[in-house]
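Worked example

This section walks through a single chain of length 150. The input is the sequence exactly as stored; nothing has been trimmed or padded.
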Amino acid sequence: MAIVVRNEGAKVNSNINVTPMVDVMLVLLIIFMVITPMLKKGVPLQLPPASNPVEMKDADKDDAIIVSVNRDGKIFLDTAQVSPDVLTQKVKDLLANRKANASKMIYVRADARAKYKPVVDVVDSVRAAGVDQLGLLTDRKQGANVMAPQ
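Given that input, the structure is written out below as tokens.
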């Protein structure tokens, strides 16, 4: 009489099936790729349209300093609301913390329905902070040509 030995451990599959995980990661990657361009930096504004805009790619960088004026005349430094009195000092502080070779370009975003005086006050405050260059951000009119940066 012979003894029958069953080896149940040999049938165990110890491989991990990563296909479902790869599928989930691919879906998440596609979702983030679609959503990321829709995220806008700063305060939501309706920028004035321009016929001959100059493309300013540096305004999209993370270290770009953007001052915004909404339609009510409120002033924002990036996303934080500031008063016109302290704007010059805050811009000076931001420029002092930058690298020596970084440009002193400040970008101003003003709502198309904003009054003229708050925008002029912002430009004056930024110039008083010792800014070399000032960029006014606009939207492009439909069918308008984009000029190369100078």
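What to look for: The chain is about 30% helix and 15% strand.
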